[in-house]
Amino acid sequence: MSDVKTFIDAIGADVNTTVAPKVKTLAETVSKQAFAAYGPRISAFAGELVKEIIDEQSGTLHDFVTGLIEEVFHRYQPELTGELHATMVPGAVQVTGHGVKLDVKNRETGVSVSSLDIPVALTIKVADLKVQLQNTRIQLNVVK
Amino acid sequence: MSIVDDLIENLVERNAIELNGTFTISVVNGGVSLKGLAHTSLKDTRKNNKEIFKADVPVDTQVSVGTIVIPVPQIK
What we know:
The structure holds two protein chains of two kinds.
Chain A: H1 4-37, H2 39-75, E1 76-89, E2 92-106, E3 112-117, E4 121-125, E5 129-139
Antiparallel strand pairs in A: 1-2, 2-3, 2-4
Chain B: H1 3-14, E1 15-28, E2 31-44, E3 50-64, E4 68-71
Antiparallel strand pairs in B: 1-2, 2-3
């Protein structure tokens, strides 16, 4: 006598070998017929529907997006704070940020909603500058 | 006008300094450096630019520049 698991496995295997191919064939047949008969009509209908939706709703969407952007900009105020320190190093000017951050504040309350630290570290190379003096004449005059 | 005034006037007005040379300006640690050689000559303009004095002057100077603090621009 087999246990429950073996019993169920056996039924499953049988269903797979006998029923599954039939279901597969039926599905393929229905699919082919549906694609041939209804596909073009559904496609045309869907295309027209999408066009109408876009035509009718584009104004609403435009107003919504515009309003949303306006509201966001009215509600929040970005603020950039900090200092840049420039120092001379051999052959370059080094710029480093000190406490540079972007604060997004609520315009009404002034409370910081979010803050983003911006690290700044730049090295600007400065090539040597050559100056040539050629027959530079200095003549003085007495002021009377 | 005194004799001294006359002398100075003559010395100053009849002479001219001519400079030639090449200098290199470079950024160094904490400042800017100027190095080069200046060829100077003093000429008498009333004697057909006759050279009366000549000197080669080496130049090696450094200008200290402290940290420059730039506040970040405000968003208005």
